[in-house]
Amino acid sequence: MRCVSAATEIAYDDGIPEATSSLDIGLHLAVRFSLPSGLPSARLLICRIYKAGRSGVGMRVHVLGSDGTTELTSSFNFSLAAESAWNNADVAARNIIVSDVFYITVEYLMYYDPLIGRDTTDPKSRSYYGYPGFWSLVDKGENVMIRAVIDASVTVSSMVTKMLPAENLLGASGLYVYFASAVTMMAIALVVWKRRTFNRRSVSRWL
User: Fold this and answer.
1) CATH classification of 2-155, choosing from 3.30.70, 2.60.120, 1.20.120, 1.10.3290?
2) φ, ψ (nearest 5 deg) of residue 33
3) Is the torsion defined by CA of 65, 4, 49, 147 positive or negative?
4) Strand runs (DSSP E) across 54-100, as ranges?
5) What is the reported pTM?
6) Which of 196, 88, 99 lies closest to 152 in space, CA to CA?
7) Tens digit of pLDDT for each residue in 29-45?
8) CA angle at residue 64 from 63 to 69, to 5 degrees?
9) Coil, strand or helix: which one is 82?
10) How far is CA 204 from CA 145, 192, 195, in A?
């Protein structure tokens, strides 16, 4: 992992494609990502895909949860315009919150196009092919060149939650309601007492 401006890029490849990958229409290439240790959640900013050849080819991008099936946002078409380079799909506006483990996949819309870079030098066994719910590890555990750029600042709210757990927040709220109810009951009792006192005085005048 390395810093990209104010964000963090999660990468398992070394940036140099020694081979390429491509599949039939409807099949996916996927990378399974894990957030840095101690980081419970983050916002996904960019899906990065290295296209090794055949420029101007479109495909569909999916972001899946830890089960490799659940869509965390609507899938979208993306054109890989830059050849022999990284293509960045900006998803910041989608406000995708990822936690623990998540997948970024590219679905093929054309036969064996485009060619996606594959790093063979240091296999991490995190790259798959297939489709959601039915994944197979890429041959020899080699790395399909898909990366994720995340914004970890979402953890600020998590830290606040840890400092003041939900049950404590509910407890504080309940205590407030209790005091509010007590004050209300005291006010009602005071009004009743005044009315009774007034009525007694009124009755004594007429007797």
Assistant:
1) 2.60.120
2) -105, 150
3) negative
4) 57-64, 76-80, 85-90, 96-99
5) 0.73
6) 99
7) 999 999 999 999 999 99
8) 140
9) coil
10) 95, 18, 14
